[in-house]
Design brief:
Elements lengths: L5 E4 L3 H12 L4 E4 L7 H5 L7 H30 L1
Parallel strand pairs: 1-2
Length: about 80
């Protein structure tokens, strides 16, 4: 039989945060959840809009589009001048 200092029911954002904090305090933690993977719901919540990675990827895409537009604009101006 396994023992622990802290038993957390639910491996969502709050449960994982509690586990992290308990671990920082050198507590033995067990997390119980009905899902096969912890934090699974976090990845799909909000259609990905709540996911930091999705936000970063959107910023990268926006940057690339601006960069492409700026390059095309510069080429057009250069052709007019030449």
């Amino acid at each position: 039989m396994e023992t622990c200092d802290v038993l957390i029911i639910g491996a969502g954002a709050a449960g994982m945060m509690c586990a992290i904090e308990a671990g920082k305090r050198a507590r033995k933690v067990i997390i119980l959840d009905h899902s096969e993977k912890i934090g699974r719901k976090i990845l799909i919540s909000g259609g990905g809009r709540c996911n930091l990675l999705t936000y970063i990827l959107q910023l990268i895409h926006l940057y690339r589009q601006i960069h492409i537009f700026a390059n095309q604009r510069c080429l057009a101006i250069h052709k007019k001048i030449s």
